[in-house]
Amino acid sequence: MRTTGLIAALALLWGSGFFWIALALDGFTPIQLTFARLALGALVLVPIVLVRRLPRPAGRAKWFHLTVSALIANAIPYTLFAVAEQTVSSSLAGVINATTPLWTLLLATATRSDSRLTVRRSAGVALGFVGVIVVFEPWNGLASGTTGGVLACIGAAASYGLAYIYQARFLTNRGLSPLTLTVAQLVIATGILAVALPFSGAIHGPEALPTVSVLILGIIGTGIALIINFQLIATEGATAASVVTYLVPAIALLLGVLILNEPASLTLPIGGVLILAGVALTRAGRPVAG
């Protein structure tokens, strides 16, 4: 029951992130939204690292790798999803986000981090990208701005995939806890977005709902969600935590359609199922790292 509760809570928090982004964009630009999200998430996690007196990163090489990781794991994908949701629905963004494991596998193969691209995995990747095409519906014509938004979502998912590979090669199993590494990345990414903040436009008196949405997205959807994720991995293992991958797009789809009244085309859930089926094929028979 405890494991089920943690999985459900994490899936709800991460799945609803696309919903909160859509609401927050009514009062903030993508850069402003991403900066606030990162800063609030860092404010939740930094005190935990300090109280627990966890070892801190040391050395120029470590901080360089953390900066690269902060860019591709936080600053870039968070911003791209916010940019994308200016023109595409939150439900579509949530479904495309599920392609992250497919990009991870492809990029790992391309960089020779994982050369085991078997027939089953190749079929899974192909099926997953068929799902993306189904979601995109190119045969129905493309609405103005939709192409750019979809490409931004794909870029964000690919950036996440690249981040997993980079972190595994340069940051994990290097004597620092995953929590310390995550906090360092959030702080660095916040600094990166702070540099871009003066060029992001003025805040035109955001109303209560966008402001509350940003607070929820940063404090709960980023900070507390990461705490739950670490707790789930520590107590139940990465296999249990990976179950969340299959629940996030369903929650994003439900919230977008039921609450935001986004278009309820059948191609979206069908494409989502194809993507998740492809992800399942790529993971079948594959040992999961701790």
From TrEMBL:
Transmembrane segments: 34-51, 63-84, 90-110, 122-139, 145-166, 178-202, 208-228, 240-260, 266-284
InterPro entries linked: AA-Vitamin_Transporters, EamA_dom
Pfam families, per the entry: EamA
Keyword Transmembrane helix on entry: yes
Record's subcellular location: Membrane
Domain EamA: 6-136, 149-282
Alphabetized UniProt keyword annotations: Membrane, Transmembrane, Transmembrane helix
Membrane topology category: Multi-pass membrane protein
Record family assignment: Belongs to the EamA transporter family.
Protein name stated in the entry: DMT family transporter
Organism in which the protein naturally occurs: Pseudonocardia abyssalis
